Every structure is written in structure tokens, then in C-alpha cells.
């Protein structure tokens, strides 16, 4: 069909697009939405997507694995010398590119599990183009046996979310700047990993040489915590070490600088915030300053409190878990118990540096003299 179109164009002295419009108009089977200004064999195309042109060139869909219509226009139309048809040069290529750009299979990279990760930086700019490309992409990925599809939509493209949902994509997780969606292609159990299941919190057990504990009263608290003095606590930030987060939280809430000693215990709980599980690490910290300056947006008050007085609070005495935590902390102070200290190690498996927490087992350290 392409060669016939070019013959028609040559005989009439028209550009290929004008000839295509004439042919389509004469058959009455479809309408062409391409606009074209032509002078003999010189054609300048300013176009939006055209269903009729895409059908005319549908045979080239198998020419590219990642994107459709990536090839040179001469190859697409079967023209030996594209420049002789008036389409040569950067301008000619660009006009045809504009006319066909909405037919791309979305740019994506293969993951190591037989799936694809869509390039969020190269998504179409409008809803219609995205909807067409997404449908074409799913069809292509199914045909080549792909499994999972990861689609990251930046917040400025949030209008695309309903279009993805309509195609069968599911929510996976959301961050401040994007929403991640997934699609499982095979007719078999979905093997894509679920969203992160845990949040990580820390508590700082800061005790000085006078056996005083740094304690706080939170500004916003439930009625069960009225009048209760507790350890400074908070959440670990993304990519933050546990030991760094513990010292940071103490500093932010009380103004006291500390050094990390070890993790004395950690608690694992479920169905906490938003039905997620929670890991809470109690860290022993050594103060290197003593002046208190509270963060008034979070903390009502802070002070140094005698350890004995702190432990005798009804809140601790009546709560089995907190009572156990304080028993462990006291045993740590008496050097009858060793906590977990961080050690940086590199794994040959992924060549990454990780932090491994474990007890020091050297004979000279069995009494936890580092404290």
C-alpha cells in the first residue's frame, strides 16, 4: 500500500501525505487528521496523531522491540531514496516523527526477574498519547513473555493514574513526589514483592555519670501518657543508620549531644501505623553535653531524672514490656549484658557496604568494658 501511495503522489506532483489525504477522502472509509502545506514535491507536515496513517504503517510494528516507528521514514515507507520524495534531512524526519510519536511502546528497561521498569522521565506528555502507548506497550510485553511491569508516575502526571487503573494497574506505594504502580502479566500467581512492610523507630537511653536519665514529656500525647516522663523517641529517616538516627532524635528533641554505645534491645510489633509492622530499637547513648534545649514544636518538657525515680514511675512498673526494657538497660549498666554494636562489612554478593549489628565476642570485652 505504501508504494501505491507514493506512485499516486509522484503522478499528481503531490507530497505523500497530501496523496494519502486524497486517497482516504476518495474512499470514504476513514478521515485523515493530518494537515499539510505542499509545494510540488516539498512537504512540511504539522500533525497530531492520525489513526488512518497509523493503520497504513501498521506493518512496521514488528520492526522494533522497544519502540515502534523508531526506524528511518524511508525504511517505514519502503522508499529507496527518502530525500528524493521531499522528506530527506532533519526537517523531514522531524515532521514524520511528530506525526507518529504517539505510537511508541513506552521506554522501559528489563529487570532481572523477567519484567520491565518503565522510564518515568520519558513518558508521553498528554493523556491520550499515554493511554494509547500504555495499551500498545502491554500488548507488546505480553507478546514477548514479560512478567511484571513497574510504572512510576511523577506527581505532575497524576492525571495518568486513572488511565493506568483502567488498564489493570494496581497501586504499590506512594512517596512525596511519585506513585508506583504495578501490573502482573502472566496468568499465574503474582510474584512481585509487596510494598515495604515495616517502619523503624528508635529510643535513646541516655544516662550520665550521676546515673541520671535524659527524659522528655511529649507535647502531643494520648491521655495515658499525661504526666509520664519517657525516653526520647522518633523514626529513622530514609537511608539513615540506626545509630545515627538515635543520636539525631535525642539532639532534635532535647538539644543534648550524644555518642552511640550499642543497641540494648529491639521490639517487633504488628498493625501499628496504617496496619504496618514496627521495629523499635532501644539504643544506649553516652551524653557529651548536658545543657537541655527542647524542641517546643514536639516536646513539652525535658530534664535529667534519677534512674531510680524514672524506673519507679507507674507507667513503667505497670507495663511488662517497658519494665523489661529498663531491666535490660540496667543490666547493661552493670556490665552483665552486652548490646549489639555496628560493624561495617562488604558483601561480595552485591559489593555493597552494610551495617551488621552483633555482640563483640573478644575475651577482653566479655564484661562490656566499652561502656
TrEMBL record:
Q: Which gene encodes it?
A: LOC100194205
Which parts of the chain are coiled coil? none
The family note in this entry says: Belongs to the Nudix hydrolase family.
Q: Which organism is it from?
A: Zea mays
Q: Which GO terms describe its molecular function?
A: ADP-ribose diphosphatase activity; metal ion binding; NAD binding; NADH pyrophosphatase activity
Q: Which residues form the Nudix hydrolase domain?
A: 197-327
What domain of life? Eukaryota
The entry's protein name is Nudix hydrolase 8
Sorted UniProt keywords: Hydrolase, Metal-binding
Amino acid at each position: 500500500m505504501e508504494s501505491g501511495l507514493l506512485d499516486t503522489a509522484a503522478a499528481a506532483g503531490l507530497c505523500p501525505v497530501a496523496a494519502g489525504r486524497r486517497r482516504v477522502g476518495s474512499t470514504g472509509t476513514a478521515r485523515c487528521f493530518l494537515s499539510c502545506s505542499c509545494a510540488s514535491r516539498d512537504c512540511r507536515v504539522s500533525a497530531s496523531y492520525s489513526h488512518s496513517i497509523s493503520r497504513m504503517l501498521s506493518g512496521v510494528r514488528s520492526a522494533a522491540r522497544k519502540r515502534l516507528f523508531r526506524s528511518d521514514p524511508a525504511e517505514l515507507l519502503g522508499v529507496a531514496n527518502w530525500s528524493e520524495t521531499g522528506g530527506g534531512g532533519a526537517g523531514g524526519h522531524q515532521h514524520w516523527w511528530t506525526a507518529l510519536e504517539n505510537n511508541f511502546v513506552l521506554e522501559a528497561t528489563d529487570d532481572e526477574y523477567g519484567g520491565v521498569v518503565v522510564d518515568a522521565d520519558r513518558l508521553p506528555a498528554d493523556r491520550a498519547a499515554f493511554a494509547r502507548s500504555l495499551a500498545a506497550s502491554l500488548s507488546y510485553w505480553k507478546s514477548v513473555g514479560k512478567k511484571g511491569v513497574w510504572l512510576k508516575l511523577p506527581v505532575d502526571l497524576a492525571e495518568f493514574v486513572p488511565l493506568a487503573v483502567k488498564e489493570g494497574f494496581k497501586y504499590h506505594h506512594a512517596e512525596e513526589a511519585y506513585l508506583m504502580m504495578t501490573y502482573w502479566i502472566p496468568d499465574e500467581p503474582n510474584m512481585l514483592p509487596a510494598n515495604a512492610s515495616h517502619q523503624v523507630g528508635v529510643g535513646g537511653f541516655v544516662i550520665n555519670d550521676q546515673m541520671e536519665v535524659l527524659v522528655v514529656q511529649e507535647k502531643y500525647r494520648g491521655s495515658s501518657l499525661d504526666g509520664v516522663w519517657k525516653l526520647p523517641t522518633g523514626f529513622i529517616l530514609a537511608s539513615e543508620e540506626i545509630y545515627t538516627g538515635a543520636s539525631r532524635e535525642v539532639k532534635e528533641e532535647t538539644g543534648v549531644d550524644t555518642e552511640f554505645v550499642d543497641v540494648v534491645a529491639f521490639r517487633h510489633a504488628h498493625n501499628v501505623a496504617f496496619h504496618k509492622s514496627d521495629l523499635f530499637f532501644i539504643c544506649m547513648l553516652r551524653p557529651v553535653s548536658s545543657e537541655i534545649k527542647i524542641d517546643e514544636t514536639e516536646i513539652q518538657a525535658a530534664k535529667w531524672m534519677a534512674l531510680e525515680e524514672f524506673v519507679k514511675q507507674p507507667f513503667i512498673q505497670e507495663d511488662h514490656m517497658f519494665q523489661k526494657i529498663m531491666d535490660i538497660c540496667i543490666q547493661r549498666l552493670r556490665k552483665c549484658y552486652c548490646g549489639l554494636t555496628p560493624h561495617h562489612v562488604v558483601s561480595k554478593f552485591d559489593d555493597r557496604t552494610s551495617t551488621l549489628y552483633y555482640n563483640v565476642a573478644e575475651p577482653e570485652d566479655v564484661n562490656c568494658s566499652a561502656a
